[in-house]
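Dear support,

I submitted the protein below through the web form. The confirmation email said the job was done, but the results page showed an empty box. After a refresh the structure appeared. I'm attaching both so you can tell me whether what I see now is the final result or a partial one.
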Amino acid sequence: MNLRLSVVVVLLLGACAKPPPQALGTLEFDRVSLPAPAAERIVAIDVHEGEQVAAGQALLALDPAHTRAQLAAAEATAQRARDALAELEAGPRAEDIAQARANLAAVEAEAREARAYYARLLPLKDRNYVAAADLDRARAAAGNADGKVRAARAALDELLHGTRGEQVAQGEAALAAALAEADAQRVLLGKLAVVAPRAARVDSLPYRLGDQAPVGAALAILLAGDAPYARIYVPEPLRTSVHVGDRVRIRIGDQPASYEGSVRMIRSEPVFTPYYALIGEDVARLSYLAEVALGGDAAALPAGLPVRAEFGGAAK
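What the results page shows now:
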């Protein structure tokens, strides 16, 4: 009789035991979104949704024709800038210098003739053998000829001194800009072949063959990681008792099996609790988003399953 009474007492105590503190959430994988680098038509899709892919595996390809044309134009511009810089660095040609010297000699001869003509007319002024207007024209012609001599000598000196350092610097900058533009187009061309950045499973391919997605739109969404993690919402009363590294038991619905994990992140700023994570009095309270890393025994679990996290003795 005493034995039966003891069993009943134990069962009653177990039924009345306070359940461990818990938080609700969902199973998630690290989501990798691959945006469209350019608004080009999809010309190939090499995978299907749900497929497991390796790092570097081709997923889909965009039409490269337009980007190839832009790359060719950028490379031509870079070559033109390279040739212009080479011309600046080489300096003036010997033929240009010879032409400048010949031009200087010609204007010097014209200047000597103009000065001589003015010198012949000048004594005739006092005898009124020459009109004042003719004398003025001769003086102006001599001055104009001297100006041409100075201009021709300056042009020759410019050629003899060679290219200025500032001009070479401008040429180098123009070449660097053209090369950078060509590199940018080359990188963009490489991005048109979309590959998996890491081993993952293809979760979604929003666009189909022949579609033209806008720049930045997700062409593929991957779920990465060896196992999912639990994204849970810690109620405000539990926040002070939950820390990174704490052990947590994750349960899925009414399944008897549970999965052990550890808190890898908990936000410092509260958020409004989603409707599916509301528990009793916590309806009107804020919660703190946390992530619980799971082990390899949870690798086969799909994303999106609702979970319940039990914190053991995290709070009373």
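Response: this is the final, complete result; the empty box was a page-load delay. The mean pLDDT is 84.
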